[in-house]
Amino acid sequence: MPHWHPTAENVTVLSGEFHVGMGDKFDESSMLTLPPHSLAVVPPHHNHYAMTKGETELQVSGTGPFKLIYVNPADDPSKAQASPATKKKAAAKKK
Predict the structure, then answer these.
(1) Fold classification of 3-94 (topology level)
(2) What is the pTM of this model?
(3) Which terminus of the chain has fewer CB atoms gathered within 10 Å of its CB, N or C?
């Protein structure tokens, strides 16, 4: 999902196929395909999104602290509602 970082992000494709797109909305048809040994450098505060096809190995680097901010906060999986089963499990651990 589209997101940005407060610092530059460097992605090296070690193996497989990496696809990256720029902008506020995910659009698979506009993504650039990066083969092995490619390098993508995304500047700070630049909205982008990515995906892989098949087994892919990446190396991601940048200057810390590294943060990921979603363009649409609803896309942030860390903010997702816990399922009833997860809530029940958490309550059981407190006992």
Answers:
(1) Jelly Rolls (2.60.120)
(2) 0.77
(3) C
CA distances from 95 to 52, 83, 85, 86, 91 (A): 42, 19, 16, 15, 7
pLDDT digits (tens, 9 = 90+) for 12-71: 999 999 999 999 999 999 999 999 999 999 999 999 999 999 999 999 999 988 899 999
Do residues 63 and 12 touch, judged by C-beta distance below 8 A?
Answer: no
Contact at 8 Å (CB) between 17 and 34? yes
**b/e burial code for range 19-49 (CB count within 10 A of at least 16 → b):** bbbeeeebeeeebeebeeeeebebeeeebbb
- What is the SS3 assignment for the chain? CCEECCCCEEEEEEEEEEEEEECCCCCHHHCEEECCCCEEEECCCCCEEEEEEEEEEEEEEECCCCCCEECCHHHCHHHCCCCHHHHHHHHHHHC
